Amino acid sequence: MSLGARARGFVELTRPGNAVAAGVLTFTGAFVAGASLGDTLVVVAAVLATVFATGAGNVVNDYFDRDIDRVNRPDRPIPRGAVTPAGAKWFSVALFGGAIVSALILPLTAIAIAVVNLVALLAYTEFFKGLPGVGNVVVAALTGSTFLFGGAAIGNPLGALVLCLLAALATLTREIVKDVEDIAGDKKEGLRTLPIVVGEQTSLFLGGAVLLVAVAASAVPFLNGAFGVAYLGLVVPADIVMLVAIAQSFDDPPLAQRRLKHGMFLAAFAFIVGRAASLGVAP
Ligand SMILES: CC(C)=CCC/C(C)=C/CC/C(C)=C/CC/C(C)=C/COC[C@H](O)COP(=O)(O)O
Ligand SMILES: CC(C)=CCC/C(C)=C/CC/C(C)=C/CC/C(C)=C/COP(=O)(O)OP(=O)(O)O
Ligand SMILES: [Mg+2]
Protein backbone atom coordinates (compact mmCIF):
# COMPACT_ATOMS: atom_id res chain seq x y z
CA MET A 1 0.00 0.00 0.00
CA SER A 2 1.39 3.49 -0.92
CA LEU A 3 2.63 5.97 1.69
CA GLY A 4 -0.17 8.34 0.63
CA ALA A 5 -2.82 5.70 1.21
CA ARG A 6 -1.44 4.99 4.67
CA ALA A 7 -1.25 8.71 5.53
CA ARG A 8 -4.87 9.12 4.41
CA GLY A 9 -5.75 6.18 6.65
CA PHE A 10 -4.30 7.93 9.69
CA VAL A 11 -6.14 11.16 8.93
CA GLU A 12 -9.38 9.24 8.31
CA LEU A 13 -9.05 7.49 11.69
CA THR A 14 -9.37 10.86 13.46
CA ARG A 15 -12.73 11.52 11.71
CA PRO A 16 -11.45 15.04 11.00
CA GLY A 17 -14.93 16.42 10.36
CA ASN A 18 -16.00 15.47 13.89
CA ALA A 19 -12.74 16.69 15.43
CA VAL A 20 -13.00 20.11 13.75
CA ALA A 21 -16.73 20.31 14.55
CA ALA A 22 -16.01 19.56 18.21
CA GLY A 23 -13.41 22.35 18.17
CA VAL A 24 -16.05 24.67 16.73
CA LEU A 25 -18.36 23.71 19.61
CA THR A 26 -15.64 24.63 22.12
CA PHE A 27 -15.11 27.94 20.33
CA THR A 28 -18.89 28.51 20.39
CA GLY A 29 -19.00 27.74 24.10
CA ALA A 30 -16.33 30.36 24.77
CA PHE A 31 -17.98 32.82 22.36
CA VAL A 32 -21.43 32.43 23.98
CA ALA A 33 -19.90 32.56 27.47
CA GLY A 34 -18.54 36.04 26.66
CA ALA A 35 -15.00 35.56 25.32
CA SER A 36 -13.24 38.76 24.30
CA LEU A 37 -10.15 39.38 22.19
CA GLY A 38 -8.04 39.15 25.33
CA ASP A 39 -9.09 35.51 25.68
CA THR A 40 -7.67 34.53 22.29
CA LEU A 41 -4.79 32.41 23.67
CA VAL A 42 -6.90 30.34 26.04
CA VAL A 43 -9.67 29.91 23.47
CA VAL A 44 -7.17 28.68 20.86
CA ALA A 45 -5.66 26.29 23.45
CA ALA A 46 -9.11 24.96 24.37
CA VAL A 47 -10.07 24.46 20.72
CA LEU A 48 -6.78 22.63 20.05
CA ALA A 49 -7.27 20.44 23.14
CA THR A 50 -10.76 19.52 21.91
CA VAL A 51 -9.61 18.75 18.37
CA PHE A 52 -6.75 16.57 19.65
CA ALA A 53 -9.01 14.86 22.22
CA THR A 54 -11.81 14.15 19.75
CA GLY A 55 -9.34 12.82 17.21
CA ALA A 56 -7.71 10.67 19.90
CA GLY A 57 -11.11 9.37 20.99
CA ASN A 58 -12.05 8.43 17.45
CA VAL A 59 -8.70 6.71 16.82
CA VAL A 60 -8.72 4.71 20.06
CA ASN A 61 -12.36 3.79 19.44
CA ASP A 62 -11.45 2.27 16.06
CA TYR A 63 -8.46 0.54 17.68
CA PHE A 64 -10.65 -1.14 20.30
CA ASP A 65 -13.47 -1.71 17.75
CA ARG A 66 -11.24 -3.32 15.08
CA ASP A 67 -12.94 -6.72 15.41
CA ILE A 68 -16.50 -5.31 15.39
CA ASP A 69 -15.64 -3.03 12.49
CA ARG A 70 -14.54 -6.03 10.42
CA VAL A 71 -18.29 -6.84 10.43
CA ASN A 72 -19.88 -3.39 10.73
CA ARG A 73 -17.39 -1.17 8.89
CA PRO A 74 -14.89 -3.25 6.81
CA ASP A 75 -14.03 -0.09 4.86
CA ARG A 76 -12.53 1.64 7.91
CA PRO A 77 -8.71 2.17 7.93
CA ILE A 78 -7.78 -0.65 10.37
CA PRO A 79 -10.01 -3.46 8.94
CA ARG A 80 -9.04 -2.48 5.37
CA GLY A 81 -5.34 -2.63 6.24
CA ALA A 82 -4.42 1.03 5.70
CA VAL A 83 -3.33 1.38 9.35
CA THR A 84 -2.02 -1.36 11.64
CA PRO A 85 -3.57 -1.75 15.13
CA ALA A 86 -0.21 -0.86 16.71
CA GLY A 87 0.08 2.22 14.48
CA ALA A 88 -3.42 3.32 15.52
CA LYS A 89 -2.65 2.73 19.20
CA TRP A 90 0.52 4.89 19.21
CA PHE A 91 -1.17 7.54 17.03
CA SER A 92 -3.95 7.88 19.64
CA VAL A 93 -1.31 8.18 22.40
CA ALA A 94 0.29 11.07 20.50
CA LEU A 95 -3.09 12.78 20.04
CA PHE A 96 -4.00 12.33 23.72
CA GLY A 97 -0.61 13.90 24.53
CA GLY A 98 -1.41 16.85 22.28
CA ALA A 99 -4.72 17.36 24.10
CA ILE A 100 -3.00 17.34 27.49
CA VAL A 101 -0.24 19.76 26.44
CA SER A 102 -2.80 22.14 24.87
CA ALA A 103 -4.93 22.17 28.04
CA LEU A 104 -2.06 22.87 30.46
CA ILE A 105 -2.36 26.68 30.16
CA LEU A 106 -6.12 26.65 30.89
CA PRO A 107 -7.88 27.47 34.19
CA LEU A 108 -8.19 24.55 36.63
CA THR A 109 -11.92 24.01 35.88
CA ALA A 110 -11.12 23.54 32.19
CA ILE A 111 -8.24 21.19 32.98
CA ALA A 112 -10.59 19.18 35.21
CA ILE A 113 -13.13 18.86 32.36
CA ALA A 114 -10.35 17.79 29.99
CA VAL A 115 -9.05 15.13 32.41
CA VAL A 116 -12.53 13.70 32.97
CA ASN A 117 -13.17 13.66 29.22
CA LEU A 118 -9.85 12.04 28.34
CA VAL A 119 -10.43 9.28 30.89
CA ALA A 120 -14.00 8.80 29.58
CA LEU A 121 -12.72 8.61 25.98
CA LEU A 122 -10.16 5.97 26.93
CA ALA A 123 -12.72 3.99 28.94
CA TYR A 124 -15.63 4.40 26.54
CA THR A 125 -15.16 1.46 24.22
CA GLU A 126 -13.88 -1.03 26.82
CA PHE A 127 -16.21 -0.20 29.72
CA PHE A 128 -19.21 1.89 28.62
CA LYS A 129 -20.07 1.02 25.03
CA GLY A 130 -21.35 -2.47 25.82
CA LEU A 131 -23.71 -1.30 28.58
CA PRO A 132 -27.27 -0.57 27.37
CA GLY A 133 -27.61 3.19 26.97
CA VAL A 134 -24.56 4.00 29.11
CA GLY A 135 -22.18 4.36 26.15
CA ASN A 136 -24.71 6.57 24.39
CA VAL A 137 -24.96 8.84 27.44
CA VAL A 138 -21.14 9.05 27.72
CA VAL A 139 -20.74 10.17 24.08
CA ALA A 140 -23.62 12.63 24.49
CA ALA A 141 -22.09 14.07 27.67
CA LEU A 142 -18.67 14.33 26.00
CA THR A 143 -20.15 16.20 23.05
CA GLY A 144 -22.17 18.55 25.25
CA SER A 145 -19.15 19.14 27.48
CA THR A 146 -17.33 20.95 24.68
CA PHE A 147 -19.54 23.99 25.33
CA LEU A 148 -18.74 23.91 29.06
CA PHE A 149 -15.06 23.43 28.23
CA GLY A 150 -15.04 26.55 26.04
CA GLY A 151 -16.77 28.56 28.76
CA ALA A 152 -14.41 27.20 31.42
CA ALA A 153 -11.42 28.27 29.30
CA ILE A 154 -12.47 31.92 29.83
CA GLY A 155 -13.54 31.44 33.45
CA ASN A 156 -17.29 31.02 32.81
CA PRO A 157 -17.92 27.22 32.72
CA LEU A 158 -21.71 27.45 32.77
CA GLY A 159 -21.92 30.30 30.24
CA ALA A 160 -23.18 27.98 27.49
CA LEU A 161 -25.02 25.43 29.65
CA VAL A 162 -28.24 25.47 27.57
CA LEU A 163 -26.31 24.77 24.36
CA CYS A 164 -24.42 22.02 26.18
CA LEU A 165 -27.70 20.32 27.12
CA LEU A 166 -29.15 20.70 23.61
CA ALA A 167 -26.07 19.14 22.01
CA ALA A 168 -26.00 16.31 24.54
CA LEU A 169 -29.69 15.42 24.03
CA ALA A 170 -29.48 15.48 20.23
CA THR A 171 -26.25 13.43 20.30
CA LEU A 172 -27.93 10.88 22.61
CA THR A 173 -30.72 10.47 20.05
CA ARG A 174 -28.23 9.98 17.21
CA GLU A 175 -26.14 7.50 19.19
CA ILE A 176 -29.26 5.36 19.76
CA VAL A 177 -30.03 5.41 16.02
CA LYS A 178 -26.38 4.48 15.28
CA ASP A 179 -26.67 1.50 17.64
CA VAL A 180 -29.75 0.34 15.72
CA GLU A 181 -27.68 0.65 12.53
CA ASP A 182 -24.80 -1.37 14.06
CA ILE A 183 -26.93 -4.07 15.72
CA ALA A 184 -25.57 -6.93 13.56
CA GLY A 185 -21.90 -6.45 14.43
CA ASP A 186 -22.64 -5.50 18.02
CA LYS A 187 -24.62 -8.76 18.46
CA LYS A 188 -21.70 -10.78 17.03
CA GLU A 189 -19.41 -9.15 19.57
CA GLY A 190 -21.78 -9.87 22.44
CA LEU A 191 -22.36 -6.18 23.22
CA ARG A 192 -25.49 -5.33 25.21
CA THR A 193 -26.45 -2.08 23.46
CA LEU A 194 -29.89 -0.52 23.97
CA PRO A 195 -31.44 -1.92 20.74
CA ILE A 196 -30.17 -5.41 21.60
CA VAL A 197 -31.57 -5.29 25.13
CA VAL A 198 -34.91 -3.45 24.66
CA GLY A 199 -35.46 -3.87 20.90
CA GLU A 200 -35.00 -1.56 17.92
CA GLN A 201 -38.50 0.00 17.94
CA THR A 202 -38.44 0.80 21.67
CA SER A 203 -34.94 2.28 21.30
CA LEU A 204 -36.04 4.51 18.42
CA PHE A 205 -39.13 5.68 20.32
CA LEU A 206 -36.85 6.52 23.26
CA GLY A 207 -34.51 8.40 20.95
CA GLY A 208 -37.48 10.26 19.51
CA ALA A 209 -38.68 11.26 22.98
CA VAL A 210 -35.21 12.59 23.85
CA LEU A 211 -35.13 14.57 20.60
CA LEU A 212 -38.58 16.06 21.27
CA VAL A 213 -37.27 17.40 24.60
CA ALA A 214 -34.22 18.86 22.82
CA VAL A 215 -36.33 20.46 20.09
CA ALA A 216 -38.69 21.99 22.65
CA ALA A 217 -35.73 23.25 24.69
CA SER A 218 -34.13 24.77 21.58
CA ALA A 219 -36.67 27.61 21.93
CA VAL A 220 -35.18 28.60 25.31
CA PRO A 221 -32.27 30.76 23.99
CA PHE A 222 -34.85 32.73 21.97
CA LEU A 223 -37.49 32.91 24.72
CA ASN A 224 -35.01 34.08 27.37
CA GLY A 225 -33.71 36.77 25.04
CA ALA A 226 -30.19 35.36 24.71
CA PHE A 227 -30.57 34.98 20.94
CA GLY A 228 -32.88 36.73 18.45
CA VAL A 229 -34.68 35.89 15.21
CA ALA A 230 -31.41 35.10 13.42
CA TYR A 231 -31.04 32.09 15.73
CA LEU A 232 -34.69 31.11 15.31
CA GLY A 233 -34.42 31.31 11.51
CA LEU A 234 -31.69 28.64 11.60
CA VAL A 235 -32.59 26.45 14.57
CA VAL A 236 -36.18 25.86 13.41
CA PRO A 237 -35.02 24.30 10.09
CA ALA A 238 -32.42 22.32 12.06
CA ASP A 239 -35.15 21.04 14.38
CA ILE A 240 -37.31 20.07 11.40
CA VAL A 241 -34.42 18.19 9.74
CA MET A 242 -33.80 16.24 12.96
CA LEU A 243 -37.50 15.48 13.56
CA VAL A 244 -37.92 14.20 9.99
CA ALA A 245 -34.75 12.14 10.43
CA ILE A 246 -35.95 10.41 13.59
CA ALA A 247 -39.24 9.58 11.84
CA GLN A 248 -37.19 8.06 8.98
CA SER A 249 -35.05 6.07 11.44
CA PHE A 250 -37.74 3.38 11.79
CA ASP A 251 -37.27 2.49 8.10
CA ASP A 252 -33.73 3.60 7.30
CA PRO A 253 -31.41 4.02 10.34
CA PRO A 254 -28.23 4.68 8.25
CA LEU A 255 -29.92 7.53 6.35
CA ALA A 256 -31.54 8.85 9.54
CA GLN A 257 -28.30 9.03 11.51
CA ARG A 258 -26.61 10.95 8.69
CA ARG A 259 -29.56 13.35 8.43
CA LEU A 260 -29.52 13.83 12.22
CA LYS A 261 -25.87 14.84 11.93
CA HIS A 262 -26.72 17.40 9.24
CA GLY A 263 -29.43 18.87 11.45
CA MET A 264 -27.05 18.97 14.42
CA PHE A 265 -24.40 20.80 12.45
CA LEU A 266 -27.02 23.34 11.27
CA ALA A 267 -28.09 23.79 14.89
CA ALA A 268 -24.47 24.41 15.93
CA PHE A 269 -24.29 27.08 13.20
CA ALA A 270 -27.52 28.59 14.58
CA PHE A 271 -25.81 28.98 17.96
CA ILE A 272 -22.87 30.85 16.40
CA VAL A 273 -25.08 33.13 14.26
CA GLY A 274 -27.41 33.69 17.22
CA ARG A 275 -24.56 34.86 19.43
CA ALA A 276 -22.95 36.95 16.65
CA ALA A 277 -26.31 38.64 15.96
CA SER A 278 -26.79 39.36 19.67
CA LEU A 279 -23.44 41.18 19.55
CA GLY A 280 -24.48 43.07 16.42
CA VAL A 281 -21.75 41.45 14.28
CA ALA A 282 -24.24 39.46 12.14
CA PRO A 283 -27.70 40.21 10.65
C1 LIG B 1 -32.24 20.42 19.17
C2 LIG B 1 -30.91 21.09 19.01
C3 LIG B 1 -30.92 22.55 18.69
C4 LIG B 1 -29.76 20.39 19.16
C5 LIG B 1 -28.38 20.92 19.08
C6 LIG B 1 -27.51 19.89 18.39
C7 LIG B 1 -26.03 20.17 18.35
C8 LIG B 1 -25.51 21.57 18.26
C9 LIG B 1 -25.21 19.10 18.37
C10 LIG B 1 -23.74 19.19 18.24
C11 LIG B 1 -23.32 18.05 17.31
C12 LIG B 1 -21.93 18.25 16.80
C13 LIG B 1 -21.72 19.32 15.79
C14 LIG B 1 -20.96 17.46 17.33
C15 LIG B 1 -19.52 17.64 16.93
C16 LIG B 1 -18.92 16.34 16.46
C17 LIG B 1 -18.85 15.29 17.54
C18 LIG B 1 -17.96 15.50 18.69
C19 LIG B 1 -19.64 14.24 17.49
C20 LIG B 1 -19.56 13.09 18.46
O1 LIG B 1 -20.01 12.01 17.70
C21 LIG B 1 -19.62 10.74 18.11
C22 LIG B 1 -20.15 9.80 17.06
O2 LIG B 1 -20.38 8.53 17.59
C23 LIG B 1 -19.17 9.72 15.90
O3 LIG B 1 -19.77 8.93 14.94
P1 LIG B 1 -19.75 9.45 13.42
O4 LIG B 1 -20.31 10.86 13.44
O5 LIG B 1 -20.63 8.48 12.70
O6 LIG B 1 -18.32 9.42 13.00
C1 LIG C 1 -13.44 18.92 25.55
C2 LIG C 1 -12.48 17.78 25.48
C3 LIG C 1 -11.13 17.94 26.07
C4 LIG C 1 -12.84 16.62 24.90
C5 LIG C 1 -14.15 16.41 24.22
C6 LIG C 1 -14.05 15.21 23.31
C7 LIG C 1 -15.31 15.01 22.52
C8 LIG C 1 -16.05 16.20 21.96
C9 LIG C 1 -15.76 13.76 22.30
C10 LIG C 1 -17.02 13.53 21.52
C11 LIG C 1 -17.40 12.12 21.44
C12 LIG C 1 -16.38 11.24 20.74
C13 LIG C 1 -15.55 11.78 19.62
C14 LIG C 1 -16.24 10.00 21.13
C15 LIG C 1 -15.18 9.11 20.53
C16 LIG C 1 -15.60 7.67 20.56
C17 LIG C 1 -16.66 7.37 19.51
C18 LIG C 1 -16.39 7.56 18.08
C19 LIG C 1 -17.80 6.93 19.94
C20 LIG C 1 -18.78 6.32 19.03
O1 LIG C 1 -18.18 5.12 18.65
P1 LIG C 1 -19.05 3.81 18.33
O2 LIG C 1 -20.15 3.64 19.32
O3 LIG C 1 -18.08 2.69 18.17
O4 LIG C 1 -19.71 4.15 16.94
P2 LIG C 1 -18.95 4.31 15.58
O5 LIG C 1 -17.52 3.92 15.79
O6 LIG C 1 -19.66 3.40 14.61
O7 LIG C 1 -19.09 5.79 15.23
MG1 LIG D 1 -16.61 2.38 16.82
TrEMBL record:
One cellular component term from this protein's GO annotations in UniProt: plasma membrane
InterPro entries hit by this protein: DGGGP_synth (IPR023547), Prenyltransferase_related (IPR050475), UbiA_prenyltransferase (IPR000537), UbiA_sf (IPR044878)
GO molecular function: geranylgeranylglycerol-phosphate geranylgeranyltransferase activity; magnesium ion binding
E.C. no: 2.5.1.42
Topology term for the membrane: Multi-pass membrane protein
Transmembrane segments: 20-53, 90-122, 134-154, 160-177, 204-223, 229-250, 262-282
Pathways per UniProt: Membrane lipid metabolism; glycerophospholipid metabolism
Keywords assigned by UniProt, alphabetized: Cell membrane, Lipid biosynthesis, Lipid metabolism, Magnesium, Membrane, Phospholipid biosynthesis, Phospholipid metabolism, Transferase, Transmembrane, Transmembrane helix
PANTHER family per UniProt: CHLOROPHYLL SYNTHASE, CHLOROPHYLL SYNTHASE, CHLOROPLASTIC
Free-text function comment from the UniProt entry: Prenyltransferase that catalyzes the transfer of the geranylgeranyl moiety of geranylgeranyl diphosphate (GGPP) to the C2 hydroxyl of (S)-3-O-geranylgeranylglyceryl phosphate (GGGP). This reaction is the second ether-bond-formation step in the biosynthesis of archaeal membrane lipids.
Name the record gives this protein: Digeranylgeranylglyceryl phosphate synthase
Lineage: Archaea, Methanobacteriati, Methanobacteriota, Stenosarchaea group, Halobacteria
